[in-house]
Amino acid sequence: MEAGGEKAVLKSHFQTKQGLKWGEIVALRGTVVDVRFREGLPAIYTQLRAGEKGEVILEVVNHLSAHVLRSIALTSTSGLSRSSPVASMGEPLRVPVGERLLGRVFNVFGETIDGKDPIEGGEWRSIHQSPPAIAQHNTSSEILETGIKAIDLLSPLERGGKGGLFGGAGVGKTVLITELINNIVKQYQGISLFCGIGERVREAEEMYREMQEAGVLENTVMIFGQMNEPPGARFRGGLAGLTMAESFQQD
């Protein structure tokens, strides 16, 4: 299909969108895509769409010149070529937030991947949020009792702090995290958000079933940028998860 025909198909797919900017691909190297816009460049982090039905999602990461930008692909670039049309959506990637997320599993685009009804409407926030104001930070220091003796005795965690687990495959990292989620939900009646970046599809499915069996899924949100997805999707998975988590913290 010629570039003009591709643009016509893409335009018809986004016929409800008004004021879209249109560009064309000038270079394509794996998941790195350079796009020319003749009438002004979209802002950094703007979401771009390409492909016949807009199925290829790109994100602007750099302005190379007055009319050319560089983007990273968050989905497969199969079928794209030089001169393929690109539509600027005029906004960054957004994910849903709020209590309606509890018990659900998402990808980096805020789409549900648990086989249940999709989440539509309501509040959606950009994954590129400003950090919370200093005045909102808790300045006190308090130990978070996890209920796991080895952690509480030998390597206690601070409330609001960070902890790291380092180890090879099969040593029990995911099992320990699952137990932490279980204890946080049952001991503190809290909410846990698990963000799997580079997880195997099998591991994600197994963890989902374990959460169900433990009875803590209804107080848990899961988001995955799995290892079969492009690097760009995995790269933004953490930001999507953080955006969802911050919404619970602010409510």
Layout of SSEs?
Layout: H1 3-13, E1 21-29, E2 32-36, E3 46-50, E4 56-63, E5 68-73, E6 85-92, E7 94-96, E8 105-106, E9 124-126, E10 143-144, H2 149-154, E11 157-158, H3 173-188, E12 192-197, H4 201-214, E13 220-225, H5 231-250
Parallel strand pairs: 8-13, 12-13
Antiparallel strand pairs: 1-2, 1-6, 2-5, 3-4, 3-6, 4-5, 7-9, 10-11
Any overview of this molecule?
The structure is a single chain. This protein has 5 helices and 13 strands. The chain is of the alpha+beta class. It starts with a helix and ends with a helix. The strands form 4 sheets. Strands 1-2-5-4-3-6 form a 6-stranded antiparallel barrel. 29% of the residues are buried.
Task: Tag the structure with descriptive keywords.
251 residues; alpha+beta; 6-stranded antiparallel β-barrel; 3-stranded parallel beta sheet
Low-confidence stretches: none
Head-to-tail CA distance between termini: 49 Å
Number of strands: 13
Give the SSE order as H and E letters: HEEEEEEEEEEHEHEHEH
Task: State the strand order across the main sheet.
Answer: 1-2-5-4-3-6
Count the helices. How many?
Answer: 5
Task: Look at the structure and give the mean pLDDT.
Answer: 87
- Secondary structure: helix percent: 25-40%
The helix-and-strand class reads alpha+beta
Overall spatial form: elongated
The radius of gyration is 21 Å
Q: Brief description of this entry?
A:
The protein has 251 residues and is an alpha+beta fold. It has five helices and 13 strands. It starts with a helix and ends with a helix.
